[in-house]
Predict the structure of X-Tfes XVIPCD domain-containing protein.
Amino acid sequence: MVPRHGSLLPSQDPLHRQAEDAVRRLEQGLGREYDDNSARLAASSAYLAKENGLTRIDHVVLSENSKSVRQGENLFVVEGALNDPAHKMAHMKTNDAIAQPVEQSLAQLQSLGETQRQQQSQQQEQQREQSITPPPRMV
C-alpha cells in the first residue's frame, strides 16, 4: 500500500479509504490539491460516517451558500446517489473536521469499529443461547 499524503497512520477501514477518495474528488472539483487539511477532512469524514451508521461513503460534499449557512461551512458524507431521496447522510462543521488530527480520528474510528464488533458478537451469542435454550414449559 502506498502511503497517501497526510495519512500518518495506515487505515484498514474501508470507510477511511472511501473518504479519502471522495475528498480527493471534492478537492479536484474545487481545483485544489489533496493536502494535510484534506487528510484531516477525510479521516473525520470516515469517523462521522461510522458513528452515524453509514456502511460506505459515496460522496463528501460541502454546504452551499444559503440564508442560514455559508458555503463550505458544513461537510456532508453521503451513502448513495446525491439525487436519491433514500440516501443516507451525516454532517458536521467543516472547521471541526479540519481541526481534528488524523491520528485522533483514526483512533476513534478504530475504537468505534471494535465496539461495534463486540456488540455484534454479544448479540450473536445471545441469539445462539436463545435458540439453544428451550422455551419454558407451561404445566
About this structure: Helices lie at 14-29, 36-51, 94-99, 102-132. Residues 14-123 form one domain. The beta strands are 59-62, 74-79, 88-93. The longest strand covers residues 74-79.
